[in-house]
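Handout, page 2. Input:
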Amino acid sequence: MTHDLQELIKTTLKNPREAAKQARESDLPIIPLFQLAVLVCLVGSILTSLQISLYPVDNAPSFPLGNIAPFSVALYGFLSFAILTLGTFLGGRLFGGKGTLPATLLSLTLIQSIMVGIQIINLVAGLILPATIESWIGILGFAYFIFLFCIFVAELHDFRSPFMVFLGSLGFFLILILVFGSIVLWLVSNV
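Output:
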């Protein structure tokens, strides 16, 4: 399975649409896919925690779990990946998509694997390059994530236009944020 993921990563870097097709047609069982997703999220969380510790900020964000930043980062990473996976699967199905949950999980794990590579590049760049260049690497990495996400979701759900996926994803996640934000505000106001 690791060799398959390495091949998919290489294909993604060369031809993202072809990699997305391969991910959609993959028949990997859900349990190993879930384990792979957890591993990729964990590595990403470790890199994020390392970056936070290497570049301390005067007004660092506070974490709900106290000063246990690595655990908070991991919790946020896993939650955001789970929400992104379910949102991508359910949102695509809501708009007539044909993607399956295992294919969605594989697609997003593949994209996240590539983002881990970009995190490593950004981390090393932060140690040897000026902060402005490191910032640009982060911005370009995020833009590349959006690009890959739109291509993979278009292929996953058999949509025609990655641009329409971009617009639909913005709208769908904006609605999710508003709904969850309203729930949180309601809970906070009733406490």
